[in-house]
Amino acid sequence: MYQRPQHLLSRCARENQVWFWEEPVFVDGIEARLAMRRVDPNLTVIVPELPAGIDEEAISYRQQLLMEELLNDIGTESYVLWYYTPMARNFTRQLSPAAVVYDCMDELSAFRGAPLGLRVAEQELFEAADVVFTGGRSLFESKRARHHSVYCFTSSIDVRHFGQARKIKEEAVDQRAIPHPRVGYCGVIDERMDLELLAAVAESHPEWHLVMIGPVVKISESDLPRRANIHYLGGKNYAELPLYMAGWDAAMLPFARNESTRFISPTKTPEYLAAGLPVVSTSITDVVRPYGRDKLVQIADTPEEFSAALARCLQKRSLEEEQLRLQKVDAFLSRSSWDQTWSDMEAIVRNVVERKAADAGGDADRLELSTTAD
Predict the structure, then answer these.
(1) What is the DSSP string of 84-110?
(2) What letters, b where the CB count within 10 A reaches 16 and e where it falls short, cover 333-353?
(3) Residue among 75, 22, 71, 73 nearest 50 (CA)
């Protein structure tokens, strides 16, 4: 998935060296090692490969040793640690970075299968962090009392990338045979999805075809509703998404309303809008504010309401009505971009590093960035 961490840290890598540390994978009969992939001259993705069958304590210890070896090989003494998972504290707490950043993009403790100790690890990370960013307004309101320096940076948008969908005329090969009207979703398909809602909409409108793009995670394939008009096309890469969206008539966010969705701020909301699509979502707080409030997205929760909202989206509009709708969308999206979000974040982090360096009598001119990501 190409989401917030990738958007931000690919931009960070334009001017900084970035090492993006992934979750470990486990392999029989090996010694602990790092698999490293250079994405571009300044960006390296690192995957720890660990012996299969080791316990949690050994997992943390092996990663600690690998991290220390990496920093020795890099040869830098001034670096920022940028966290996406508090669990990475288990193998990085011994380090002495120039600054610690926690970019909190979800309430991970509410997700299915959340690791034991996550809440304790997050509290430790709050105590270690110099600055905390949140990926949505709800998360900001939840976290701001826990740290002295919390900033809200909601989901941004690469307008140029998704705006391609408005002009693309060709069809994605595996979508070509699906009849219209098509209602699309792209993103992870997991416990946050309201599968009963999805099934009910498909049953009540067999003439609509629901296109589901994304990997199935943490739920079983057998949990998915199977109907002739629901099409699971699997995961696609980021570059392909505008091609698929170009073939949709509307887009949807059929999220369940539960603990795992209470604080989410879906990046796909502005992506759908940039693609020119009318959108229906369940009442996720960070979609209701601002997209529902500003009448950019229709909000509906029951199958009947959701179907009625989709029917309105699928109604044919005059050219003038469509132009007015897109003008309103574009005016809203013009105020938010990943480039601007990264620029604002970097300025905050740079100020922290420079202040700490000045307090210590050091030099903040040369920085590297190490990222721990889930």
Answers:
(1) S-GGGGGGTTT---SEEEEEE-S-GGG
(2) beeebbeebbeebbebbeebb
(3) 22
Structure tokens at 32: 């602990």
| Distance linking the first and last C-alpha atoms of the chain | 11
For residue 111, pLDDT over 90 is answered with: no
Burial of 228 (0-12, 13-18, 19+ CB in 10 A): exposed
Q: Which domains does the chain have, with CATH numbers?
A: 4-156+337-372 (3.40.50.2000), 175-333 (3.40.50.2000)
> Contact 45/22 with Cβ under 8 angstroms?
yes
Q: Are 328 and 293 in contact (CB under 8 A)?
A: no
Q: pLDDT band for position 260 (50/70/90)?
A: confident
pTM of the entire structure?
Answer: 0.87
Q: What is the pLDDT of residues 183-225, one digit of tens each?
A: 999 999 999 999 999 999 999 999 999 999 999 998 999 999 9
Q: What CA–CA distance (Å, rounded) separates 359 from 116?
A: 37
Distance CA 49, CA 66 (A): 10
